[in-house]
Specification:
The protein has a single domain, classed as 3-Layer(aba) Sandwich (Rossmann fold). A hairpin with a 4-residue loop joins strand 2 and strand 3. The protein is of the alpha+beta class and about 160 residues long. A three-stranded antiparallel sheet has the order 1-2-3, covered by helices on one side. Strands 4-6-5 form a three-stranded mixed sheet. Helices cover about 40% and strands about 20% of the residues.
C-alpha cells in the first residue's frame, strides 16, 4: 500500500513485471520502485537481481515491510539491523549479503491468525486509520529519498496515528 502511494505521488503510470517483481522506474527521482511478487520469504531474490542490474548498494535500498510485532499504525525507520524474525527481511539480508540497508516497518499489530491478518483486509477503524498510516509512511520514504536517513527517522519514528 505504501509503495503504491509513493508511485501515485511520483506520477507512475506504468509498471512492468520482470524478475518476479512489479517495477517502476522514476527517472526524475533516480528511483526504482519494486514490489516482489514472490512469497514473502523469497522476496530477497528479485530485490537482489534488480539492485544488481541498477548497481545499487545496500544502503541505497529502502525496504518497506509490514510488521506484526509493532502495534497497529506504529512506524519504525532504521538505517540497518537484523530481520527481527521477519522472514521477508531475512530473505533480503541473505540475498543482499548484509543487513546494512534501511528499512521502514509499518506496524499491523497482532490480530487474527497471522497469515489471515497479513494477507487479509483491514476492517472498520483500522481501514480508516490505515490511510493516515500509509500517508505518513510514504512521507517518510520520500523524505528519506530527498533528505537522507536522519531527517526521515526523526519524522517517522515520532509519528503516531490520530486518536479516534
Amino acid at each position: 500500500m505504501v509503495v503504491d502511494e509513493i508511485a501515485k505521488r511520483l506520477g507512475v503510470t506504468h509498471w512492468r513485471k520482470k524478475d518476479f517483481a512489479r517495477q517502476a522506474h522514476v527517472a526524475s527521482k533516480r528511483v526504482v520502485l519494486v514490489e516482489p511478487i514472490t512469497f514473502m520469504n523469497n522476496s530477497g531474490w528479485p530485490v537482489r537481481k534488480i539492485a544488481s542490474w541498477w548497481k545499487t548498494p545496500r544502503p541505497e535500498i529502502l525496504v518497506i515491510s509490514d510488521d506484526l510485532d509493532l502495534p497497529f499504525g506504529k512506524l519504525r525507520l532504521r538505517a540497518n539491523g537484523s530481520s527481527g524474525g521477519h522472514n521477508g527481511l531475512k530473505s533480503l539480508i541473505d540475498e543482499l549479503g548484509g543487513q546494512d540497508f534501511p528499512r521502514l516497518r509499518v506496524g499491523i499489530g497482532r490480530g487474527r491468525e497471522a497469515i489471515d491478518h497479513v494477507l487479509g483486509d483491514f476492517h472498520g477503524d483500522e481501514r480508516e486509520t490505515m490511510q493516515c498510516v500509509v500517508d505518513a509512511a510514504s512521507d517518510g520514504a520520500l523524505l528519506w529519498l530527498d533528505g537522507g536517513i536522519v531527517p526521515a527517522m526523526n519524522a517517522v519514528n515520532g509519528w503516531r496515528p490520530p486518536d479516534d
